[in-house]
Amino acid sequence: MVITMKKHNMLTDSPGKSLFYFALPMILGNLFQQFYSTVDSIIVGQFVGEDALAAVGASYSLTTVFIMIAIGGGIGASVITSQYLGAELYSRMKTSVYTALISFLTVSITLGVFGLLFSSKILSALNTPENILADAILYLDIYFVGLPFLFMYNILSSIFNALGNSRTPLYLLIFSSLLNIVMDLLLVGGFGFGISGAAVATVFAQGLSAVISFCILLRSLKSYGEEEKGKERAEKETSDLQKSLLFDAGMLGNMIKVAIPSMLQQSIVSVGMLLVQSVVNGFGSSVLAGYTAGTRIESVCIVPMIASGNAVSTFTAQNLGAGNADRVKKGYLAAVRMVAGFAVVICLVLTLFHEGIIRSFLESGSDAAAFETGNAYLSFIAFFFVFIGLKAITDGVLRGSGDVVVFTLANLVNLGIRVTIAFTMASHWGVQAVWIAVPMGWSVNYLISFVRYLTGKWSKKKLIKVKN
Fold first, then answer.
1. CA distance linking residue 152 with residue 173, whole number of Å
2. Which end of the chain has fewer surrounding CB within 10 Å, N or C?
């Protein structure tokens, strides 16, 4: 039996349905990716040992920075591509795709060479323990050799999402994750290649997926512009085709306008977690263990919220490209209902089952403080996921329109609140100050972005030029 998923048109179908069915593959993909990451760590830890797992962990924060650059670049490319798609300017849309691929391939090769030259110095500067330094350098060097493939894998996924196709990235993610696990078992467990085997498995699996994704994308792009259009639109498109380019510096500039704030947002999240982590460390390993378990669960709970925000971003870009700002407002209201529904389900599950969930992350002999911390964190945060959902979809409208100044400011304020409260109030409120600050940051971020949304100025942003 073949299972098919109906494709919903973001320009004509019900806003609620098109957003939900577009976000669903992204939700499933992110959940699957978290499952894969866990299995990958288990394989390295079980077959190679604690030091090897620590070496991968020591490299993680650095590799995450490069992936954030790719994700931010992908968001910049997706907004421009979506707006051209909505305007039915298919030749320009294709130029925007080619411009993104050429530009970010160049960036990834440059970053890969930089990483190879300075990996040992960077890891030493991060105070990587001597007993795992050699393994960490080996892992990073292999990672940097394959960086162009890993980079393009993320860029291509963003472009597919921009085209309204969130299913292909899901299928490729499942394929690459399963292939990665199989190769981990083969190279690490079977042939005993250790940490180098884990790095090669990741690079090969995502590299192959990137090549397949690129081939599928080229075939998909051929179909645009072939469907029937009105005479006036056809004449304009014919004129555009005569000027079709593989690279456009103006388009790249517009991509960068959206990409840099998006990179900053991604970095803000990591920097905030890193700074807050230093506060939690001061309460001891047991409290840290409970907090870590809680944040792992939190990261799963926010998946549908982030995916909804990404869906709204693409929905906004396509409909603004088509000149339909009113439809964006209808989509936003539908997204509010969607994230509210997700928030209710998450709240009920965590409220009813938080103790069992925390115990699944901690050993039976763990200190009582670990269980108390994890339970307290989940019991509190369960009621506030609606705020990150509202933040995500409101940011999605601003990002999709290219209105990035307030969006960036709101995220900086979010970081400032979380860090300030955690550092200043921990001595008075205890470790609870860390998680009390979380919904405060989310809600203020949302309010700033929502006020900007209410002004309607986002609907007048012009990232693309459409000839009438």
1. 13
2. N
